[in-house]
Design a protein that fits this description.
InterPro entries: AmpC-like, Beta-lactam-related, Beta-lactam/transpept-like, DUF7586. Helices cover 24% and strands 23% of the residues. Helix 1 packs antiparallel against helix 9, helix 2 packs across helix 5 and helix 2 packs across helix 6. The protein contains 10 helices and 20 strands.
Length: 443
């Protein structure tokens, strides 16, 4: 099961073998996804006396959250809710109902990290009604919107939101709307053969302790699911853009946008809408990590490169933390992606006439024509505001990103009007309607 060369596969397997041996992991699997397909799989250790395979199930913990988030975004796209809606609008009487759905998705609602129950990952769960009764003002730790604060409780509330709006359980909605259409038939709420057993490895001896497994009930949307490397590879492909019709690509891109930063000024990790984000080795990654007693898992995707990486292990703790990015580094070193071939692209003469130099006051900007009739406006030689624009039915252009995201660009014969800023062909062209007027250049 490999689309990479022998030398690449050997280097990837060696890195996996070192991790399994040195970190003393009962079993460890990993996979590389490229262009929507599993390009390499490796497994080390033993599950029931045999090497793990791409069909072996492991608990995926909080990766469950990213899947629940997709159902929430589907509800948004259908018009059943808005991300700015307070939770209480859809769950009448819900505790802390003033926090918004977007804040819950991005862990910026200020909720406590863990629910007001016993250690929920190691004890049987309580029903949703019971959990909701236990939640009160004490579970609000920060002003909503103030900062990133990871909350398992927040995703329990989102799971109940999905259940109420869909008129079924969160799991049935997820299965019908996401897992089944993507062919992820090995992703289940409880284990089925073949599956790994979860272990804690003693820190000072080579012995293991079996960890408990149970139904988390109301907390299940925060980390209930089991999956296989093959299924998680399909999820990596989904997060990389192969949505299979389950989600609008623009909505997936919205989920990838940073909504909260986890590590302050350094900004190496953060959160979008239901997705963890990371910057590592020049890559911009999106995905999710997962842990439950006895299990660790991670899936990252780099949409810009069309690659993804994942690992699944049956140990409570102890992995190095660099395995996924190391595997991506090995792939890049041995089999770097070739750039797409450049080919001419026919251009509308009217759009072609717009390209070239424009000036915001005295500052030169370049307007370029991109594929799909998009425009790019960016400063020439130096810092400044840059954005891409897409055409609208009324003849205007809508900003996609950067400073002008969501703003309107209007094109006139002698100037561009970008949300009241006037761009002219010549610096402060006196023939254009520059606000404040132009008195003329002088020495």
């Amino acid at each position: 099961m490999s689309q990479v060369g022998h030398a690449t596969a050997r280097a990837l397997l060696r890195r996996l073998a070192v991790e399994q041996a040195e970190c003393r992991v009962p079993s460890l699997t990993a996979a590389i996804v490229r262009d929507g397909r599993m390009a390499w799989f490796g497994g080390r250790g033993r599950v029931d006396g045999a090497p793990p395979t791409a069909a072996t199930q492991y608990r995926i913990g909080s990766i469950t959250k990213s899947m629940v988030a997709v159902v929430v975004m589907r509800l948004r796209d259908e018009g059943a809710l808005a991300l700015t809606d307070p939770l209480g609008e859809h769950l009448p009487g819900a505790p802390l109902g003033h926090v918004t759905i977007a804040q819950l998705l991005s862990h910026t609602a200020g909720l406590t990290a863990e629910p007001p129950t016993d250690w929920w990952e190691r004890t049987p769960g309580v029903p949703a009604a019971d959990l909701l009764e236990r939640v009160g003002p004490a579970e609000l730790k920060h002003r909503p919107g103030r900062r990133f604060h990871y909350s398992n409780l927040g995703f329990a509330l989102l799971g109940e939101l999905v259940a109420r709006l869909r008129g079924t359980t969160w799991l049935k909605a997820l299965t019908a709307e996401v897992l089944d259409p993507l062919g992820m038939n090995a992703t289940t709420p409880r284990p089925r053969p073949p599956h790994a057993t979860g272990y804690a490895v003693h820190p000072w001896a080579d012995v293991v302790l079996e960890e408990p497994e149970h139904d988390a009930d109301a907390m299940a949307p925060a980390g209930q699911l089991w999956s296989s490397p093959a299924d998680l590879a399909r999820w990596a492909a989904f997060l990389g853009g192969d949505t299979g019709g389950v989600l609008c690509p623009d909505t997936l891109a919205e989920m990838h946008e940073p909504a909260g930063v986890e590590d302050g000024d350094t900004w190496t990790s953060g959160f979008g809408l239901g997705l963890q984000l990371a910057r590592a080795g020049g890559r911009r990654l999106a995905g999710h990590t997962g842990s439950m007693p006895g299990f660790l898992a991670t899936v990252w995707t780099d949409p810009g490169e069309g690659t993804g990486v994942l690992f699944m292990a049956n140990t409570t703790s102890g992995l190095s933390g660099t395995l996924p990015t190391d595997l991506l580094d090995i792939l890049e070193e041995h089999e770097p992606r070739l750039p797409d071939e450049w080919q001419p692209d026919p251009a509308d003469p009217g759009l072609l006439a717009l390209t070239g130099l424009w000036h915001w006051g005295p500052k030169p900007y370049a307007l370029r024509l991109l594929p799909g009739r998009q425009l790019s406006l960016e400063p020439v030689g130096g810092p400044g505001r840059a954005s891409r624009f897409v055409p609208q039915d009324d003849g205007t252009w809508l900003g996609l990103d950067g400073y002008y995201a969501g703003e309107t660009l209007k094109v006139a014969a002698d100037h561009l009007d970008l949300n009241t800023f006037i761009f002219t062909r010549e610096p402060y062209d006196p023939g254009a309607p520059v606000p404040g007027g132009v008195t003329g250049w002088h020495g």
